[in-house]
Amino acid sequence: MTKRWGLKKQDYHAACARRREFRALLGERYGPRDFAVHELVFGELVANAVHYGEDPIGAEVALDDDGTVQIGVENAGKCRAGECFGPDQSRIGRPPLTATGGRGLEIVRALADAFEIEHSPAHVSRVTVTLKG
Fold first, then answer.
1. Which residues pair with 75 in a beta bridge?
2. Residues spanned by the domain of 95
3. How many domains does the chain have?
4. How far apart are the C-alpha atoms of 9 and 28, rounded to whole Å?
5. What is the DSSP letter of 68?
6. pLDDT digits (tens, 9 = 90+) for 16-46
7. Which of 89, 99, 78, 17 is nearest to 8 (CA)?
């Protein structure tokens, strides 16, 4: 089962609504379970895209029968390989201890079973995360 949503830059109200829909979708598909990690990962990726990305912004989830959840979030903008996540995309740099932000993707990476960042020549960035059931 796959679900897709479109979002707009700076539309935080819609981002919150999509997060609630995502949580409800998980409950409908898999029954009562603790989906706090799933919701945190989805919310962080969508919030980052809405805050930092450019339109069009999209979110997609694929729910497998075995409980595996794949989340993909993409946005347009000027982010290219080496500019947003450092020259080595296999590791996201740690922000200074005094920073008030910049830890979201690091947290997502730590929680995910698989994490990938792709950049297209057309300046579209996509983060794909897999959480195993």
1. 57, 125
2. 2-131
3. 1
4. 29
5. -
6. 999 999 999 999 999 999 999 999 999 999 9
7. 17
- Give the distance, in angstroms, between the CA of residue 89 and the centroid of all CA atoms in the same chain: 16
Structure tokens that stand for 84 in this block: 């947003």
Look at residue 79 and tell me whether its pLDDT is greater than 90. Answer: no
Distances, alpha carbon 88 to alpha carbons 50, 60, 75, 92, in Å: 24, 26, 20, 8
- pLDDT value, residue 103: 81
Token look-up 């932000």 returns 101
Q: DSSP character for 96?
A: P
User: What whole-number distance in Å separates Cα of residue 110 and Cα of residue 8?
Assistant: 27
Tokens of 49: 């895209």
Q: Smallest Cα–Cα separation from 111: which of 99, 125, 127?
A: 127
CATH number for the domain harbouring residue 6:
3.30.565.10
